[in-house]
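Researcher: Here's the sequence for the chain we discussed earlier.
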Amino acid sequence: MVASAADSWPTDEDLRVAHSRFAARIPGYVQPTAYTLARRDPGGLTVGYLNGPGGEHRLPAAVLASVCGYVDTSGVFRLSREQAAKAVELLTPAEAATHWEHPNLWSWRTLLAGAEHGCSFLAYFVAPRRGVRMPGPAGTS
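Model: Thanks. This is the structure I predict for it:
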């Protein structure tokens, strides 16, 4: 599933289906307990929206995982500017769901807009403990 400018996911069902499709493209994918995207500049680290335990934003996790390589193990994943931009592109159709806020998408765009030459992006994922399943509503961004 590759999002295009013509795609839109205005309903909760559309968001749920999008999440399921992104997750299904990653064999062994496990929804993380927590995740975020950050930008590393010469002056330091700027962190985007932090999705903590029990969060309701499942779709952006699967989108970000699809571009960075997260599957089921906690870690930090380096992304190029192009990969971060791809994550924004893939998540953009979720904005059609105007009944939800989209803090991941908004913060990722801000991180990209402030990117200087030579910066890098880091995706942080905290996987659930083995045997622990994190329930949550349909994917939102």
